[in-house]
## 1
Amino acid sequence: MKILIVGSGGREHAIAWKVAQSPKAEKIYCAPGNAGIAEYAECVDIGAMEFDRLAAFAKEQKIDLTVVGMDDPLVGGIVDVFEAEGLRVFGPRKNAAILEGSKAFSKDLMKKYGIPTAAYENFDDPARALQYLEHAKFPIVLKADGLALGKGVLICNTLEEAQEGVRSIMMDKKFGSAGNQMVIEEFMTGREVSVLSFVDGKTIRIMTSAQDHKRALDGDQGLNTGGMGTFSPSPFYTEEVDAFCREHIYQKTVDAMAAEGREFKGIIFFGLMLTEDGPKVLEYNARFGDPEAQVVLPRMNNDIVDVFEACVDGTLDQVELEFQDNAAVCVVLASQGYPVKYEKGFEIRGLEHFKGKDGYYVFHAGSKFQDGKIVTNGGRVLGVTALGEDLKKARANAYEAVKWVDFDNKYCRGDIGKAIDEA
Ligand code: AMP
Ligand code: GLY
């Protein structure tokens, strides 16, 4: 088969690496890709939002399956464009990707179908939102409705902060049109867990759990980022939690989408909070997490192409997922200054140390070729993943491997997976 992957980050590198292991994959392309992905795929210089050019490329090259890694093209309707051209594609259509694309939609869906989540109200009028805050309990959480690179969520401790937040989201449009609507919701406390799943419209198959570290600095300080590191599995995702989520969250979400005429095919990423009152949904995403994919996929035994095809064909009920009984930790190596301002173009040294080392992976998030070298090309540059027989060993291995690579302005958190010690 010829397979096209759409995206250019560490997640797409992990997907390309996993697809490359499938005996079915004869030729892999990635648009636009990066210098790490180029090891497994031919990178094609077409942007992820250029749907018509991508579809034309897929037709020309007779691509058998396209896998969309990123949220923006999914929410923008890339799957509909490909399907209209008769192309096979893995991912939700636009009317289903709204599960991630609109927080107001996903909150209303959860309320309507009794899926546990924080209490909330939706607003499209800033005056009404400001009025509502007068009688609210603090801290309180404000969320821009649309996609905002993980930055559209504000946790406000006081009325003044929340008023300022409403103004910046809805009036100053800090996150653009993502702030045309807003969700105001109850603040919850508890451990966060990410659970990814494959869905074929009817059947859902749950992958192993993971946990991200969203803040830029050690001790969960600093600004929110796309994710500074992950571990899998989460020791807090117990059998009891799993049983609860299977009964009250996972299948219910798939059935709710189908009942709304928005059949969901692809990946549903459940962002969960384990509260005192039980697990609740913080958010849905309609694609693999980044860097969750970098710890989940190295632990998966299945041929991922089989699973993608089962989702597209609606035969996922015939597939059982299988994960290794081990653990993985991914430490993101970023450019100093990320997520605000950072320099790019520095040579990345030491990548060769990963060659032939089982259980160690370096997934590129932001890299490119320049003058025969591989240089930094983003805020998040690399995701160094290591396996281990348990979480502690995986963490020690990952931090050992972090030393193998270097570039100017490299920085990473030193406490990825520290929560493991409390388990
Ligand atoms: P989201 O994009 O909805 O996952 O929100 C980003 C982050 O904000 C989450 O990972 C949580 O750490 C935090 N967050 C979101 N909603 C809430 C909430 N209702 N209570 C407490 N923290 C929240
Ligand atoms: N790591 C969080 C996300 O991919 O949304």
## 2
Amino acid sequence: MPEAVLVAGGAGYIGSHAAKLLHQRGFHPVVVDNLVCGHRSAARWGTFVEADLADRDQIQAVLLEHRIRAVMHFAAHAYVGESVRDPAKYYRNNVANTLSLLEAMQAVESDLFLFSSSCATYGEPREVPIAEDHPQSPINPYGRTKLVVEGMLRDFETAYGMRHVSLRYFNAAGADPDGELGEDHDPETHLIPLVLEVARGARPHIAVFGTDYPTPDGTCVRDYIHVSDLAEAHVLALEHLLAGGESRSYNLGNGAGYSVRQVIEGARRLTGHPIPALEARRRWGDPATLVGSSEKIRRELGWTPQLPGLDTILETAWRWENGKRRAAGPLGR
Ligand code: UDP
């Protein structure tokens, strides 16, 4: 019988790509999602259970019923700006609900955990590329919630023997190369989908948040990593834990930085659309440059991104964006 993996938040952007890959690799994904942000249509592989992580009894029942071997946890709010305005929402969902999930696991002696962490736990980088031993000093509530959970996992390991891998993503982007899944946030705040929405005529322009950063062209530099490469890292980390491997924290990025202007330029080349860009004020909480070193997971687990180039990331996202247009008419969703 295939090993069952609970995918919390598996109807969301990254979780749905992971569920698909788990299925392809012979695991049985059991997607648990409350559908507040996720989409039922994205949970197409394995079993789907509509449930909230705060409902410990129900989660416990799912863990037992499906003989869950390991848990991948993607369910979280992830808007930095919103976390500043409404930290309670972030601490409740990202911290309290994660605690509830961990307690459910503890109660049924389920002990393998894969956590979606973030480069936001590092805060303003002291050096780039950022390695895992860079000090973690987040500058916004979102990053702090992720850091609290990382600490919680270390304490749960010491006390209860639960092993974990924390995966610190840089900028997740792109879409399933088969065109079955992609990014669909409401509201959308991320650069790449917004730029592509301009290209398909759903928005008049893209605002460039800050043009006076200490970077080569004055705009923020980010390390964009394809969502399918993130999914692959999760499966490798799962296999590491299943083989008895120790708890780890790993960065997931390509180690290459692209500025906001370079992303827009790449999208213009790809789509042939002029993509009007308006210079705007800096967005609060944005470090100038975030580029990660992922040498550790490459060395230890043999992770090698298969879709590292910005052009590929944009191409897959553009195919997804056009699929959405077909589904929703020329100017809407
Ligand atoms: N950005 C921008 N205009 C937008 C959205 C984002 O200039 O409409 C910039 C943002 O300031 C950051 C980069 O694009 O420097 C990536 O932002 P995104 O929200 O995609 O990811 P984040 O870095 O916040 O995880």
## 3
Amino acid sequence: MSFTIVEPVTSRLNRSELAVPCSRVELFEKAAKGAADVIFLDLEDAVAPDDKERARKNCIQALNDVDWRGKTISLRVNGLDTHWMYRDVVDVLEGAPGKLDLIMIPKAGTAADIYAVDMLVTQIEAATKVTKRIGFEMIIETALGMQNVDAIAGASKRNESLHFGVADYAASTKAKTVNIGGPHPQYGVLTDKDADGKRDYFWGDVWHYALSRMVVAARAHGLRPIDGPFGDFSDADGFRAQANRAAVLGCEGKWAIHPSQIGLANEVFGPSAAEVANAKRILDAMLAAQREGKGAVALDGKLIDNASIKQAQVLLNMAQRLGMAV
Ligand code: COA
Ligand code: MG
């Protein structure tokens, strides 16, 4: 281990994070009754410019009146380059003191962006005498934000998670996209001809580098990496495939832009009964090895070591949190 110890941030379930535009008041109760781990109340891009003020009022009322059933509640404020953002923070924090858990900062570009919001939130918390400390989640969705992702991740003690905002990221980098967060038919590898002259074409994962880069920056600062939206909410298999890729790279969850995606995200990012059983077998095998004074040991013909123990322990902790039999 390095002498620099990375402390993990406040631990929360973040398998699914549902987007709820504050312009649609009928969605609040439905979101609260659903199975999303985190709900983000959106004042940014899902709300039309003429509707911003009304949406902010809706948001304050919903934070005060709706029974959110213990869910983690985040507020996506407008960008720092707009004239709405300061009132989003001031009005909501003063109008619904102590109700929010997180603020989501869109299009985070530099560490100074986070510093600015931190300053504002710190003053409001002191003035309103609210002791619950709000955490930050940052969307990495511009070329500038990706370039500065490491500094952004380390910019505030309030930071909890980084989110890959694939749609704006594609716009910012001028990437070609067909469906938000999905693959692209032109991003593939054409194999050389085989003996019969036949060639294969394999679709590649166009988001691999960006997501990996964000995952590394998040984990190096103890933050949760979260994958962003998948636009085609009628394509459950497409969502599951993208969520699986994100989970394999280390993400802890994914956005749901429609209720149909919540269960899929919870399933992909929550441990299955088989994974729980396997984690228990790993721990048992390692305990037996330790009793015999061995460091590394084989299970089912494969090496398991200290890293396997850590992974198994993380999985079992989550299973316990979800009330699964462990
Ligand atoms: N939160 C809670 N409930 C939602 C919801 C959401 N985000 N989106 C849809 N629902 C509800 C609908 O009200 C409907 O409820 P009902 O069965 O009681 O009538 C049900 O889920 C099915 O919704 P559906 O009719 O298929 O969708 P829609 O046409 O009402 O809305 C979207 C589709 C995409 C416009 C909507 O889901 C949405 O606004 N999602 C968030 C998008 C967003 O915020 N994007 C920004 C981040 S990328
Ligand atoms: Mg965006």
